[in-house]
Amino acid sequence: MAIESDDGLAFDIDALAATVIREEMEHGGVRLKTAAYLERTRIPITIDIGRGALHALEGSNFWIHDKLDVIKAHRRTYDQAAL
């Protein structure tokens, strides 16, 4: 799945890799890794998707909007050091 955009950022979806994380714990998850490119600049991308009790940590809210500025999804992000 790809969404066209004119921001110049290109994600390498062919390099997308998923691995199981925290499988020894009660609440595991999946880590997605790939890269994005802004012209010749490579930007590593890591997304951890977990299940469990992270609500106790201090996180930041962000909302994903569509082109009509309608909220499509709500997510919480956490500093990697907190995990």
In short:
The protein is 0% helix and 49% strand. It contains no helices and 6 strands.
Description:
The chain has 83 residues and is mainly β. The chain has a domain at 7-52. The chain is built from no helices and 6 strands. Strands 1, 2, 3 and 4 form a 4-stranded antiparallel beta sheet that branches. 0% of the residues are buried.
Main pleated-sheet profile: 4 strands, antiparallel
Query: Taking Cα atoms only, what radius of gyration do you get, to the nearest Å?
Result: 15 Å
> What is the CA–CA distance across the termini?
29 Å
Shape: globular
Percent range for helical residues? under 10%
Q: What's the number of extended β-strand segments?
A: 6
Order of helices and strands: EEEEEE
Question: SSE layout and pairings?
Answer:
Elements: E1 9-11, E2 17-21, E3 29-38, E4 41-50, E5 60-65, E6 71-77
Antiparallel strand pairs: 1-3, 2-3, 3-4, 5-6
Task: Give keywords.
single chain; 83 residues; mainly beta; four-stranded antiparallel β-sheet; 6 strands
